[in-house]
Amino acid sequence: MPAHVFTPFKSFYGNCYDRLYYAFKDKFDRIPAVELGLSSDTNFADTIGELSGKTFLSNSDAHSIEKIAREYNRISLNAPDFENLFDAVNGGSEMNVLHHAKKQELADVVGEAIASNIILSRQGLLQLQAGGGGHYGKIII
User: Fold this and answer.
1) Is residue 114 part of a domain?
2) Least-confidence region, from 14-28, 67-81, 108-122
3) Is-above-0.85 flag for pTM?
4) What is the mean pLDDT of residues 46-68?
């Protein structure tokens, strides 16, 4: 899994390649996820076609002591091995959650209210107040 793909000056996209595919070639399709980096914009990353279908992760670095545990991923595994880790990363992508997970699957993880809002969003019925200028958008209840 490539790490820090958007970190300025030291990342794949910021310094090395125009496309991750150029680095991994025939193995690119075997990459289940990319770690964006702390300064990354997930919405921007989601506009890059080659990242479609990849899970986005974001993690703090041990070398940034003031930022340790600022961002991490909590993953439930059936067993602590690579096979289960890859299964969890592939099944937990934002696109799978937003487009395919059943309402009860969502509710079991995030609760009934959030699950209902995800379903309303899929149907185009969720009312939103746009964000901008340093403010996040909001759900209108």
Assistant:
1) no
2) 67-81
3) no
4) 78
